[in-house]
Amino acid sequence: MSRIAAFGGAYANPYAVRAMLADAKRRGCERIFCLGDLGGFGAEVEALWPLLEEWGVQCIAGNYDVAIGRGDPDCGCGYADERDNHYAQIIYDYTRAHTSPLFAAWMRELPLELRETIDGADVHMVHGSPLEINDFLWESLDDEELRLRLADSEAEVLLCTHTGIPWQRRIDDRLVVNVGAVGRPANDGRRETWYAVIDLAEDAARAELVPVAYDWRAQASSMRAVGLPEPFVETIETGWWTTCLEVVPPRERARGRFHVYRETLQALIPEGEGLTDAPAAPTAADEERPVCELLGTAVFPARLWVYTNFHCNLACAYCVVASSPQASRRSLGLGRFKALVDEALVEGFREIYLTGGEPFLERDIVLMLDYASERLPTVVLTNAMLAASWRRWPAASGWWCRPRWTGRERRLTTPGVGQGPLRGRSMASRGRARLGCHCGWRRPRRRPTETRSSRCGRCWPSWESSVRTSPCGRWWAGGSQPGRAVPSNSARSWSHRR
Ligand code: SF4
Question: Which tens digit of pLDDT belongs to each residue from 18-69?
Fold first, then answer.
């Protein structure tokens, strides 16, 4: 069996590369491979060359090395977004200006891939993918997409980098390892960077992704000393990516702290509304950072939606989750619900919304609402048909979720569907709970028809206007039972899209 190490994305970070090389030797790696991208991000690209020579590292070229070697005008990273390209260009121009002609010529001679049988294992090393040097092999690619990307290589072990986030997967008896980047953290909130140790033998390859602890302070001060943008340095100091996020797929991006460029978010928010519903005002550092969080903004409220169960006492024809009395219960249960609420608190959620099915068919719904509302503002969506039989009213704020009651739906659903919610509402108004109306309830007409104000919020296309023009678009409270803080109007207008 042979043990090798593979790293990529050195990104002009000699401090991390030196620590990684020493770690690989300590772990008994007989050979060390670099999968390319020596420059980019850091300040000391030239310092890598002696390290590679001293430790006998075998290199292939990344797109960065090809571009520097040829003197291209840009790095060829493969970004599609102009803001990603803007930040990539800043560091590319710096790197090109600080790479000696000799080192650039050395890069020019690097092979674009390596294919070798090591101890019986057929190993293929590329920078991006077997298709393209700047292809992004993300973990979120499904097996079919991955197979397509690997079609040009039948090697048992494929090693790649380029995305900067490490992962490994077995697919069709092949081992695919993205070794991550050793020069920049992996957008995981850790300052450590990553490389891979691979044990190779015939039919028995296995890999370990290894974090590299190194002198990140030295790297940060070397970047500051030459005036590289502060958001780049912040990534080294915090482990979160602050630029070039648009290229990152949703699943990977969601794991990071920042999700979109600030200007993207601003463009999505209606004029006059704030960027965030968080109480804290952005700090000077926030303003300097080109990206921001999505969770907790008016576009993406920090709200956890929980489906308590999937069955319902009704069977509305338009039900988006196909609930009915016959639907499988798929009950969440009190224990799991409490764990979710606890997790939501830790993750920074600020509201909890319960829906179903009809939540009040869930056995422990009142206990659930009590548990949630003691910790976070809590809203439950209900058709209110069962209000008369609730054993006790929960302390949580709640909204009615009235089924529509046009003639067509009445035939398709339980007879008298329109009357139950009204009965429940009037019980509540007599003092048993603090509740609110979300869909513009007003005194029923003698012959109810589907008007804008009597529509349930499920009439999605008209929902916004329904809320804003509702004659009773306000909260009303009944009795002395304590209620939670009433969610904001903006929260309300998003609440019913389930
Ligand atoms: S009341 Fe709501 S959950 Fe129940 S069937 Fe109708 S739309 Fe679905």
Answer: 999 999 999 999 999 999 999 999 999 999 999 999 999 999 999 999 999 9
Q: Which residue, judged by its Cα, is nearest atom 8 of ligand 1?
A: 319
**CATH number of the domain residue 336 falls in:** 3.30.750.210
The answer on 196 and 71 residing in a single domain is: yes
Ligand 1 atom closest to the Cα of residue 355 is 3
Query: Do both 94 and 207 map to the same domain?
Result: yes
Residue 485 C-alpha to ligand 1 middle, in angstroms? 26
Domain total in the chain: 2
Looking at the CA of residue 321, tell me the nearest atom of ligand 1: 8
pLDDT per position as a tens digit, 307-342 = 999 998 888 777 778 888 899 999 999 999 999 999
CB 35 within 8 A of CB 7: yes
Does residue 456's CB lie within 6 angstroms of at least one atom of ligand 1? Answer: no
Q: Is 356 in the pocket of ligand 1 (CB under 6 A)?
A: yes
Q: Which of these three, 364, 383, 402, is where a domain ends? A: 383
Mean model confidence pLDDT for the chain: 80
Structure token pair of residue 479: 């009795």
Distance 24 CA to ligand 1 centre (A): 59
Q: Best of 311, 361, 383, 496 to mutate for ligand 1, by most ligand atoms within 8 A of CB?
A: 383
Q: Are 195 and 20 in contact (CB under 8 A)?
A: yes
Residue 106: inside a domain, yes or no? yes
Domain harbouring 36, CATH code: 3.60.21.10
Check whether residue 44 and residue 179 sit in a common domain. Answer: yes
More confident position, 115 or 430: 115
**Ligand 1: which residue has its CA nearest to atom 6?**
316
Q: Are residues 195 and 321 in the same domain?
A: no
pLDDT at 275: 52
pTM for the full model? 0.70
Query: Does the residue 270 lie in any domain?
Result: no
pLDDT given for residue 414 in this prediction: 40
Query: Tens digit of pLDDT for each residue in 439-469?
Result: 433 333 433 333 333 333 332 222 223 222 2
- Give the distance (Å) from ligand 1 centre to CA of residue 432: 24
* Cα–Cα distance list, 164 to 168, 252, 282, 400, 461 (Å): 13, 11, 28, 47, 41
Cα 129 to Cα 149: distance, rounded to the nearest angstrom: 7
Does the residue 244 lie in any domain? no
